[in-house]
UniProtKB/TrEMBL annotation:
Gene3D superfamilies linked to this entry: N-(1-d-carboxylethyl)-l-norvaline Dehydrogenase, domain 2, NAD(P)-binding Rossmann-like Domain
Family the entry assigns: Belongs to the ketopantoate reductase family.
Keywords assigned by UniProt, alphabetized: NADP, Oxidoreductase
Keyword Transport among UniProt keywords: no
Transmembrane segments: none
Name this protein carries in UniProt: 2-dehydropantoate 2-reductase
GO MF terms, alphabetically ordered: 2-dehydropantoate 2-reductase activity
InterPro entries: 6-PGluconate_DH-like_C_sf, 6PGD_dom2, ApbA, KPA_reductase, KPR-Related, KPR_N, NAD(P)-bd_dom_sf
One Pfam family hit: ApbA
Length: 365
């Protein structure tokens, strides 16, 4: 895992047109375009933008990106991207940019989306719910839904809403943020784990093939690391070792991951004990996480990188936070198994209070 990560300190520079396929005008290119996998990507922040870039530059997919707050500026100027994987790009756009999810209910099979990739924050306590948002573009029995999101049990609402559609798990380990509307910085190599959330109502092998196909499409660019992970639940619990510790503790203290390590005391009294609580709950749920994961998780945040976890960035911006699926679900899982998680409980309750404040500031309370 550690070997797969690369950190870059310098960027090369490229000028990029609206879309490179616009330069191809002869018929063979049009035929190639028609064969590409059609991807609808929802959520054009840091992770979503890099995902769209990987998919497009890999040459096997065409991406339609649904944007919200950055739609106007990206429509006019494209994205400005500084990436340790791709260099510096100006005026970059995916194949198409929209400000709402399109309806494909009345379109021909050629107009359907093969994959819908969801890169939005996972905030179930704030509407509208993601299954409702993407529903108009989901073709029953055809569209594969990819959740590149944090947390556990995130697949359940999609199983209920789309029982005939395959749902994939995307566990991303990347430091990519939208510094300002349309301006994206990627400081950490893109490592994406993909597997299938196993739905008992669908064919197991078909679900596995859908995951493996997405790995090929996403990894075709050659500058990222995209791995097929058959044990989705174990993979998600493993990432919670980071997400349920560094993420909320950095957010609540205002210290980034490097500064947190410099304190020494906080690592020993808060961060590592929180990790061990995740270990205990995961074990109760049937997933034994090795002890070495603690040191591996710490090493994912090199001292010289000053990485800010996503929740800390959201805190600083006054955005709603995704505490329910990375803390709340762990606490509830512990309660189901009659386990004690004193540190995670406190972190969760404080995050709930801050979420109320963020909702109040946005006029949602």
């Amino acid at each position: 895992l550690i070997v797969a990560l690369r950190f870059c300190t310098a960027f090369t520079h490229f000028e990029v047109s609206d879309h490179p396929l616009k330069h191809h005008t002869h018929n063979p290119a049009s035929e190639i375009m028609a064969d590409k996998t059609q991807v609808l990507l929802v959520g054009g922040g840091g992770i979503g933008t890099i995902a769209a870039l990987n998919l497009e530059r890999g040459g096997l997919a065409e991406v339609t990106a649904v944007l919200r707050s950055n739609f106007e500026i990206v429509s006019r100027k494209g994205f400005s991207i500084k990436s340790c994987d791709h260099g510096s790009l100006e005026n970059w756009r995916p194949t198409q940019v929209l400000n709402s999810v399109p309806s494909t209910l009345d379109t021909s099979p050629m107009g359907r989306y093969d994959y819908i990739v969801c890169c939005t924050k996972n905030i179930p306590d704030a509407g509208p719910r993601l299954p409702d948002i993407i529903a108009p573009a989901v073709s029953p029995g055809h569209t594969v839904i990819v959740l590149i999101q944090n947390g556990i049990n995130i697949q359940l609402p999609f199983f209920s809403r789309f029982p005939s559609n395959i749902v994939l798990s995307g566990v991303s380990r990347i430091d990519a943020h939208e510094a300002s509307p349309g301006v994206v910085e990627q400081k950490q190599h893109d490592l994406l784990h993909v597997g299938a959330f196993q739905s008992p109502s669908l064919d197991r092998e078909e679900q596995l093939r859908a995951a493996q196909r997405f790995v090929r499409i996403y990894g075709a660019v050659g500058t990222n690391t995209c791995l097929y992970m058959p044990d989705v639940d174990f993979d998600r619990w493993s990432k919670l070792v980071y997400n349920a510790s560094f993420n909320p503790i950095c957010a609540l203290t205002g210290l980034n991951a490097s500064e947190l390590q410099m304190t020494g005391r906080t690592m020993d009294t808060m961060v590592i004990p929180a990790m061990r609580e995740v270990f205990a709950v995961a074990a109760a749920a049937g997933h034994e996480i090795p002890e070495s994961t603690i040191e591996e998780t710490i090493q994912l945040n090199p001292m010289e990188e000053n990485i800010k976890p996503s929740m800390q960035v959201d805190f600083e911006k006054g955005n709603l936070i995704e505490h329910e699926n990375i803390l709340g679900e762990v606490v509830r899982e512990a309660q189901r198994h009659r386990g004690a998680t004193p540190i995670l409980n406190v972190l969760y309750e404080i995050c709930c209070a801050h979420q109320w404040r963020f909702r109040k500031d946005k006029g949602l309370v």
